[in-house]
Amino acid sequence: MEQIDITWLRALKLWWSFAWRAWVLMLLVLIPMEIVFVSYMMSHFPKPGATPAEAMRMAGTMAILWPIFMGALIVLQAQAMRWMLNRARWSDFRVAVLPPE
After folding, report:
1. Spatial CA neighbour of 73 closest among 5, 1, 22
2. Largest alpha-carbon pair distance within the chain?
């Protein structure tokens, strides 16, 4: 198999193939997550004059939700990469995943 140089144009094609797929997946998954998150925050956000315990409860909630959000983001980007590597077609090259020699 002949190897070709990775030019700026080819790198941009790869990046764009990944970026739009990741964006589509994020829209489909993260927007509903954001809607649920914002509705939860609006109903549970400490009111003015709230006790420090209520504010700490909100901080604890954020400490739980942030890793979930970041995990979802990583999973979506990995899926976008799989989608790109399995389906993308470029006019002047192709990407192949091969075992090491």
Report:
1. 22
2. 69
DSSP 16-77: HHHHHHHHHHHHHHHHHHHHHHHHHHHHHSPPTT--HHHHHHHHHHHHHHHHHHHHHHHHHH
Per residue in 41-77, pLDDT tens? 777 777 777 777 877 777 787 888 889 888 988 999 9
User: pTM of the prediction?
Assistant: 0.72
**Is the CA virtual torsion 55, 61, 64, 70 positive or negative?**
negative
φ/ψ of 88, rounded to 5, equals -70, 145
Give Cβ neighbours of residue 73 (< 8 Å, ≥ 6 apart). Answer: 26, 30
Is 79 buried (19+), middle (13-18) or exposed (0-12) by CB count in 10 A? middle
